[in-house]
Amino acid sequence: MTMRVLQVDIVVPVRNEERDLALSVRRLVSYLRAGFPFTARVTIADNGSTDGTWAIADRLARELDEVRAVRMEEPGRGRALRAIWSQSDAEVLAYMDVDLSTDLNALLPLVAPLLSGHSDVAIGTRLARGSRVIRGPKRELISRCYNLLLHACMGARFSDAQCGFKAIRREQARALLPLTRDTGWFFDTELLVLAERAGLRIHEIPVDWIDDLDSRVDIVATALADLRGMARLGRGLARGSIKVPRLRGSWMAGARPAPELPLQIASFAVVGIASTIAYVLLYLVLRGVMSAQAANVLSLLVTAVANTAANRRLTFGISGRRHAARHQVKGLIAFGIGLALTSGALAVLHSASRGLEVSVLVAANLVATVIRFVLYRTWVFGTSKPSYDRPTPSGRHPIERDHLRSEAFDPHPAAAHAEPGPAPAARA
Which helix (H) or strand (E) holds 285? Predict the structure, then answer.
């Protein structure tokens, strides 16, 4: 048989999954055989199982040509993905959760843009328009809060860091994997943040996703580990101890990369202090000729416009007139939150001294300032949501239409460019 280039390596990390493994892997292989147009391999990554998972993985690798099994003694999804992706010979490296919560029909649109060279990283997102998601309110709330924190604290622009359905081009993975440190659930978030900092193009696709009701993931422990991972990664990027290479393009067309979070906070604080002083002085001047509520509205409005303009230039590094009006409109919406807080504070004070009025307004304004900072990072000066490729009238994906064809699957392609060092034990 002629040796064929392996195009997609789909890694399925597992640990103590003896109940679901065989059914899920057979279902995935059936999907690939039914018409998946690229050469593909399924790699079962058993990381530290103590039940019968490895025996089942080994048996599947013997029965199915498309499957290989890799055994690692230490647990950790991140550890497994880094080890296997570092040595894989496939053009595109993907992974999915063993419960197959994501509809497999999303696999082709996930990997096709990477194989065409259009994008470098692809992720499934449950938070985009067009996604169909069935999961409990607790997980929904945690997921949205986590992604909001990523946007606010790390400057991330991708919408869903935690969906277990991702892919990356091999050469880009080889450049970024040595920079990753996490061995657990934070690994793919870390890789996405690094990819974005490297200027890579991240393609997002809406997915149909059904929550696994039997999931044994400890949500609290995972959330705490993710927060520690965010703190570690943020410190490394801010101090320069994590040096991310520029692999493609720039972070945002037409704008220089925004300063790191500590510098942003410092700049925002300076602008905020100046704005607060101007607000108080303007309020005291206007209060002599109008009511407290009217003076508050006018003072906030004037200082909000100046505050948005100053933060746009000094804190977030955006110059020029492009989108300036849009930023001001969004800034005024954020200003509405401050108006609601300060007006509410004034409404509580029926008859109070001028000094008490000012003290309460400053406190309310500080709370509004924190909220405004989060909105500035995540919405006012953030990029717009990515657009998604839509099927053509014929019902086929545009990349399929452009004749990206696959050749017959070869379950044993020749290893290419494998990194030196001992490999995990594998059965293929």
Answer: helix 261-287
